[in-house]
UniProtKB/TrEMBL annotation:
Residues 121-178 form the Flagellar hook protein FlgE/F/G-like D1 domain. Its main location: other. GO terms for cellular component: bacterial-type flagellum basal body. The keyword Protein biosynthesis does not apply. GO terms for biological process: bacterial-type flagellum-dependent swarming motility. It comes from Pradoshia eiseniae. Residues 5-35 form the Flagellar basal body rod protein N-terminal domain. Belongs to the flagella basal body rod proteins family. InterPro entries: Flag_bb_rod_N, Flagellar_basal_body_rod_CS, Flagellar_FlgE/F/G, Flg_bb/hook_C_dom, FlgE/F/G-like, LlgE_F_G-like_D1. It is found in: Bacterial flagellum basal body. It comes from the Bacteria. This is Flagellar biosynthesis protein FlgC. Residues 228-272 form the Flagellar basal-body/hook protein C-terminal domain.
């Protein structure tokens, strides 16, 4: 009977974590460049139950032997295995601000293991190495450097900071930055062939590579994309779908809760009523 407690409790824990993840997605539905997390719920390995029975052998000097009888399999519960970010393209919103830039996916190679396409990302300088982001809501700091909204420097294709004289600059679809008719730099854009497996969230729309550094998207074969100035990529969270999944998670949590309450009543009777007999 206690196995039922553990199975239902594991279901409640899994749905509680799933609810937290979906709530976070919903809270970031309007966050520029945010990529929603998707849940992966898995079952614990099933256990095969067997029972030992005694069987009498009909011989002259009869004796009993133990016999193994298969009862069947029993499930031991579920768990939230991992949260996998979806790098699907979000809607592009026009802002008309020259410092806002959006990456528009073109043809991207499909990862053989996950079956999902790769992704391209802007390169960002940090104290612990290069970080990556899809959030193109940039600005210029007091020294004229192109930075993220949180003040981290955007890098060019040579991994150098990009310094500009004013916001009156242009960016071509190929990433070339020009000011006063002169080419200043080219935006640093990296390519990840398997973003779900090799990128780790750092917060504020930033990702780091799980070891090493991503290759340049400009130099990677079969990778095509464009950069749109005066626009940003919005979150790829589908609010309606997320709300539906949130209600499903809540109902599943509630169902497991009622199972535990039923077990609790059964145990109460077993202890307080049957135990008196």
């Amino acid at each position: 009977m206690f196995k039922g407690f553990y199975t239902a409790a594991s279901g409640m824990i899994a749905q509680q974590r799933r609810t937290e993840l979906l709530t976070n997605n919903l809270a970031n539905a309007e966050t520029v460049g945010y990529k929603e997390d998707q849940t992966s719920v898995r079952a614990f390995p099933e256990m095969l139950l067997n029972s030992y029975e005694s069987e009498k052998i009909p011989v002259e000097k009869s004796f009993n032997i133990s016999k193994l009888r298969s009862v069947g399999a029993i499930n031991t519960g579920v768990y939230l295995q991992e949260a996998i970010p979806s790098f699907a393209q979000g809607n592009v919103k026009e802002t008309e601000h020259s410092t806002d830039l959006a990456l528009i996916d073109g043809g991207l190679p499909i990862d053989a293991e996950s079956g999902e396409p790769g992704t391209v990302l802007f390169m960002v300088e940090s104290a612990n190495g290069t970080l990556y982001t899809r959030n193109g809501n940039f600005t210029l700091d007091g020294s004229g450097y192109l930075t993220t909204a949180s003040g981290q420097y955007i890098l060019d294709e040579n991994e150098e900071r990009i310094q500009l004289g004013s916001v009156d600059f242009t960016v071509t679809p190929e990433g070339y930055i020009s000011e006063d008719g002169q080419q200043v730099a080219r935006l640093g854009v990296a390519f990840s062939s398997s973003p779900q497996g090799e990128l780790i969230k750092e917060g504020e729309g930033l990702y780091r590579l799980n070891g090493g550094q991503l290759p340049s998207a400009y130099e990677t074969e079969d990778v095509s994309f464009t950069i749109r100035q005066g626009a940003v990529e919005q979150s790829n969270v589908d609010s309606s779908k997320t709300m539906t999944e949130l209600m499903t998670a809540y109902r599943t949590f509630e169902a497991n809760q009622k199972i535990i309450q039923a077990y609790d009543k059964s145990m109460d009777k077993a202890v307080n009523e049957i135990g008196r007999v």
